[in-house]
What we know:
With 619 residues, the chain is of the alpha+beta class. It is 55% helix and 7% strand. It has helices spanning 11-18, 41-52, 78-92, 128-142, 148-152, 161-169, 181-195, 201-210, 247-250, 256-263, 269-284, 305-317, 353-387, 393-407, 409-443, 447-453, 457-496, 501-564, 567-583; strands at 2-8, 31-35, 62-68, 99-103, 108-114, 214-219, 225-231, 245-246. Strands 1-3-5-4-2 form a 5-stranded antiparallel β-sheet, sandwiched between helices. A 3-stranded antiparallel β-sheet has the order 6-7-8. The radius of gyration is 50 Å and the shape is elongated.
Amino acid sequence: MIANITKGRRAVGALIYDFGPGRRDEHINPRIVAGNVTGTPLQVARAIDHTARRRPGIAAPIWRTSLSLPDEDGILPDAQWATIATAFIADMGFSDAPWVAVRHGDDHIHLTVSRVDWSGQLLTDRWDYRRAREAADRLEEEHDLVRARDRFRAEGPQVRNNELEAAKRRGRGPDADRPPEREELRRLVREVRDASRGLGRAAFESGLADAGVHFRANEASTGRMNGYSFTLDGLVDGAGEQIWHTASKVAKDLKWAQLKDVIGDGPDAAATAEFVDRATEMLRQGRIERGAGQPGDHPALSTDPAARILAQWRAKAAGQEAPADAVPTPEPESVPAWTDRRRRPHGTLATDSIPAEIKAAHRQISTWQDEMETARSNARTWDGMATGAVTGPRVRDLHQLAAQIEKARPHIEAEVTARKDREAAETAADAARKMLREANRLKGLGWLDLRREGTSRKAEEKKAATASEAIHAYVEQSNKAMSRAADASRAAQKASGLPWAEGEDRRLRAEWPQLLDDAQRGDQDEGRARRDTELARVEDLARRIAGAETRIDRLGQEAELRRTMPAGQRQAEARARSAAARSTPPTARRRKAPPRSQGEQPAHLRRRPPSSGGPGKTR
């Protein structure tokens, strides 16, 4: 599994790419397979960006990686990819931040993560390439996938183009019968190493000379062996100078740290003899502590440095193992008393009460952890409403109101039509009444005035009768229209559940953009307030859990201290705790009233003394 990490400023562009056609139309069926943000791809991207914007000073708050598999692993199902993505995010320490995993191909997924978590804390990306490699290694082992380390592990430093061209000029290379010098050195040195396994440096160096490999030992000024450098005859540069390759440049397993374990790096005879002579001279000159060693002690355990080192080297040269130095027994540390400030208040607890206290603290931690998880879930929900990714109650109520009005739309239109018919009938009735009044006026004039008006009594009487009939017809039409309007209003009220559906319809038509904007703003304000409240509760619960865990640690330390302390102190402390518990009453007792004298009545039954005015006077 290969993890390819990139970083950016916005998640919207990353999700647009994931759900787009790809650079060469290679994206097939893009889909979200895991994550902790819900919604459409654009809503998810906006939610991630919204959380990242809580730390505006971060240049690249979006952390992105692709996890890809070779063809040997086959095509994994979405559920397994979801498990892999969730475990990878947890290993990287990004579980508390919004993230999403998108799959649009058979062999890989894309992870998009905000480095700012739900609480606004910045998650570190230090050593993320190393941590991603380690997480991928664990997932490969857990899911039985092909190990990337085995697929891409090089046998040794490879021959590059410039070195290959130089080898061709020396008559080596792919087109010749002989490989480049570094590849031949790798083969020859490994063969010599395997042949001289366990025989020491002398045998290894002799084998190199027999194989035609020139070598030189790289030793520090202190005499410490650091490794070898190798070359072959004819391996020279353009100026004719010999080219030497260190062992690590020939093959990784030829480093001295690994090579010495194979060939065996025991001390040779010359070095041992030289050291023995030098140590003997030290003894001869009297650099030994007289009487420091006890009779019968092994020389390798002597307190004199020269004698001890000489005895150890002699034993090593003879193939014997020198005895190890005795480990001094540490002095027992003083145990503080239970009244000591370091052990209060846990030192005052009875020994049998400590396990119960630890168990109760664990139960409390479990309860708080459940509450904290619920608070985090609520915070994510409210954060979605604060970002607009989740529809809030005010917007839902507004859309529900519009849907209710839409159900009553035919009845509202029928009511409006009936009202217009009524208004038209009343207008026509008013015109007919005006005609009737004019006809009645003209009908009462004399024949000369009627002639002057260009009419006659009979004509005016006919007009009056026609106008009267029209008035009755129009009034009847108005009443029917009013009845239809009332029926339509009741039907609209029943269909919408609103007392005045037509008025609400007019209000929504006229003010819909403003009403929708106000509802969205109100939902976002409420989401931010509720989210901050839940996050504050998460922090409070985290502090409580940390305090409880500290209490559990101290209780455990107290129990371990009592288990390991001297028996006398343990018994003395137990007696002292018991005495302290007996001397302290569990509850404060109520003070009793002093006893009454014999024959004395209670206070509520006592009579007041008579007044000073005498028995015959009244007030």
